[in-house]
Amino acid sequence: MRKDNLSVKGGECVIRKKRKRFTWDDLELTLLSLPSIAWLITFCYVPMFGIVFAFKNYKYKPGKGFLYSLFVSSKWVGLKNFEFLFRSPDIANIFRNTLGYNIIFLLIGVTLPVALAIMITQLHSRRVAKVCQTAVFLPHFLSWVVISYFVFAFLSTDKGLLNSIITSLGGERIFWYQDPKYWPYMLVFINTWKTFGYSMVVYMATITGIDQSLYESAVIDGASKWQQTWGITIPLLRPVISIMFIMNVGQIFSTDFGLFYQVTRDSNSIINVTQTLDVYVYKAMMQSNNYNYSSAVALMQSVFGCILLVIANKVVKKIDPESGMF
Amino acid sequence: MKKYLSLALALMLVLAIACTASAETQKIIWWVYASGDAPIDTQMVVDAANAYSAEKIGVEVELIFKNEEQFNLGMSTGEPYDMTFTCDWANDFVSNAYNEMFYDITDLVKTATPALYETIEQKYWDVAGSLNGKIYAVPTLKDMASQQFFRLDKERFEAIGCELPDEMAFAELEPLLKAYKENYDDLYPLMMGKGGLTGMTNSAQWIAGNYLCSPYHLAGTDRENKIIPFWEDEVLMERYQLLHKWYDLGYINPDAATIESIGADIRAAIRSGSAWKGYYAGYSSWAGIVVHGASYAGPFMSTATMRGAMNAINAAASEEQAIACLKYLELLNTDRTFRDILRYGVEGTHFTYTEVNGNKVVERTEQGNNNWSMDGFVTGSVVNASCTTDSYYDWEEIFADYENAIVSTLGTFTFDKTNVEAECAACSAVMEKYTAEMLTGTLDIDEKLETIKAELIAAGIEAVQAEAQAQLDAYLAGK
Hints:
heterodimer, A: MetI-like fold, two-stranded antiparallel ribbon, 4 strands, globular, B: four-stranded mixed β-sheet
């Protein structure tokens, strides 16, 4: 799309004014997008009124219906619902875990899939490439609950695979679920294993779309594979990388509940390295059944995430004006 | 021929309409408790029950099974219902009654269903079903006190020469554990999941979460009517210390704090449970081995134990619907045949009646055991249902025994958390981190207590304690 709007005049990029007229093509595309728009409105915009939960003391009034109870009969409490989160003696720890893990996931998520995507596209055998791609992609389709059982099969204290190996070699078995020192590595490993296949496929699709003539001319000029990668593939991947990066930054206050709660089997001995915002809120809410508090925390996550997303976009645009998301 | 056929069909249609019109029945939606999925034969049993109740009182029911979270969600989003299960441990009675979610049946139950009102003893209406002097729920008659038992594997313990007492102290478990470990050295004698020994903490009445309590054993001392943090309850602390000692000795499975529970498929030497005298048969049939019950605490009685199971009516229901609900509960509490349908299923399919020692009892079929099986209190009074061939109880005797139970001095006091809600949520979150480890002995309570205390104080436990004590003092002064 961008190509049509760009023309090179005297070595300078000039962006032509976009045509205003609504064409037949536009209409077709608009119609195509209608289902998604309907989905977006129904599931993302309509429920947004639920934000008021965060500022109310919601009490259902029998016989009056949900909306009446929420908007009319429940009292406003201002910012009181946010108080609960900061009462926790663990709050610093919770934020450290949430941000720490997300930053690590972010760094790995930007580098590893790109590297592997490039490596796989370099494979000569199409069959091997397909097998690798499928193998890496597969964990993406498993739910965290299933994965938690996989992990348990390895780590179970009594009958786990790892402990069986350790004891048969004469070692002392390890209480995996009770020792916090293993879990930061384990969580990073499991998360990477499950998620990187998906982003790898995105990068691979972009690489496949790169004009082959660029590589051909590079080969004629005597460029090595390494030089081709640094000179052609990476620069052309940059817009996609930036978008993936910016989108992940927006999620930095949210963590995957499945990973931190299910996979760790909710073990309290290791909670100092596994408790993130979502886990804390879930556990607190299981006890007190207060939807106001959880809404308040969710709202906070979204607002901070949104602010960070805008900042990240600004920063990326500063570095490379073409790569921003908006 | 065709003509006659269509005529006949038309006639049948008219008749069918006429029939439904003449036998107008009222339909009520009843939410009941299920820890997992609804039983497989729900529709079959409900159809049988509806046929019976429609004829007797003109009320039919739609039975909906819900778990703890589904109750909370349903209540706060206004899902339609007429009657719901409510109690001390799920679909919380007190907070719902405070928020006026339930129908005030103080007068209605006396005028509309006097037989129901008579069936249930006055003290259960006053203590269990009431809040601030108004009746909001109909108590389900079951075991009304809480007594804790060790459930011991009789065969294996007797094989190694252990004598099993009927009553024992918690600490007296140690020699049994030791003997078991020595003789069956590849097994853990005290297997447990993250919930620990079921009912172990019931020796105190819990006022807020599992951090503030009023222990029953302090009744009659100068510390009665004081709300204290759990670490000031010596009985409970001793148990935590013992558990940790046993954990270190290898009596408890090391992964206890991370596994959900020990299912019936595992032959555990010792389990724990809340029950009543003579309930061994129930434990035995559940575990598939002969179980000996040794009581180690109780029986205790308080609002919490009496509110073990109740049914309340939606505040939004019309008076007509409310009366229908009460009539239904009345039938359940007074008509044994009807009660047995909801308790045991369809006669001939799920169970048959037989006679043991001159008493009419129920023998469940395999289909009954598999497809219509649930806790006795779920669909109504346990007391009014027939006993089964493998477990016979004299409920009158059990209820008479309650006169000797240790009764809480707190009366009908209930803690209104409104003013300290954020503190309570924060304290609960702190306890969440340690509970499983404490209950399974994984954690050394003597070493960790200072940390836990400090965290709870930071979370505001002192404010909660002060508020609860102030409310209790005001209640006692007004009494």
